[in-house]
Amino acid sequence: MSTGTPIFDEFELSGLAAILPPEVTRLIRDQQQIINNLVDRVASLESRLEGVEVQLEKHQTNTGRERAYDRQRISKLEKPNKAGPKSKEQIETVKQLLRDSPGHMTAFEVVRLYLRVGKARFSRLLATDEAQDEFLILQSPYDKRKRMLKLRQKL
Description:
Helices cover 67% and strands 8% of the residues. It is mainly alpha-helical. It has a three-stranded antiparallel sheet with strand order 1-3-2.
């Protein structure tokens, strides 16, 4: 039995039932049952459609945010971190210092003090593409909290 609102009223059919043959009355009741089932199905589909629309709107908002983050990441990759003339000069100074050091490596602090730059400036210098091509950053074998700068070997 359907739980929805019947389209046809049973009392209207009872008046017609006396006039119509029993087969026609049965067919009308069957059609009434089918229509009521369809009405219930449409109502359930409408409620599901509302839920899907909410999910779609949420997904479109997230997708837009993800695209914005992707654009930011791509722009960072497209914009190389080039060293200026002073940075290139400092990189050459560090290369010379590392060539003269035993094992071609020395502590960050030694290099930073040798260049007479602050921690932030030294970090920006090491972040340039030229510095990353020339140097390796390693952990100190003696103290895990300290880092070492080593001259990268070119083949």
